[in-house]
Amino acid sequence: MKCRDVVSHPPITVTPDKTLEEAVELLANHDVGLLVVVDRDNPRRPIGVLSERDVVRAIGWKAPLTVTVREAGTFTGLIYVYADDPVEKAFEVMMKHNIRHVLVLEQNGNLLGVISIRDLAKFCKLSSG
């Protein structure tokens, strides 16, 4: 099975100019643990992520909820797999980097979605049958 077969569609995205408060509302309303930060002019181009861990870190630093996603998110070293990679690759990447979500990109770098550890748990349950 390929990563594209277990990816969450569509990914929940945010632009870097949104506030932390707006981002937290998206996380809560969509019941997700990661937002993909996308280029304002090209919403298929991921430029960063904002995870629950990023939010906790920002609050721990006493950042006001008015800080932008650009200030609170992660914008370097994006971790991803390609849509046609075997799903096991997503698991390997998550374990290697100690993360709970991985971006899934098309070969051209466009965002397809996100695979969460929850998605992988469902996949494992289905495949063990």
TrEMBL record:
<keyword id="KW-0129">CBS domain</keyword>
<dbReference type="InterPro" id="IPR000644">
    <property type="entry name" value="CBS_dom"/>
</dbReference>
<dbReference type="Pfam" id="PF00571">
    <property type="entry name" value="CBS"/>
</dbReference>
<feature type="domain" description="CBS">
    <location>
        <begin position="74"/>
        <end position="129"/>
    </location>
</feature>
<dbReference type="InterPro" id="IPR046342">
    <property type="entry name" value="CBS_dom_sf"/>
</dbReference>
<dbReference type="InterPro" id="IPR051257">
    <property type="entry name" value="Diverse_CBS-Domain"/>
</dbReference>
<feature type="domain" description="CBS">
    <location>
        <begin position="7"/>
        <end position="67"/>
    </location>
</feature>
<protein>
    <submittedName>
        <fullName>Signal-transduction protein containing cAMP-binding and CBS domains</fullName>
    </submittedName>
</protein>
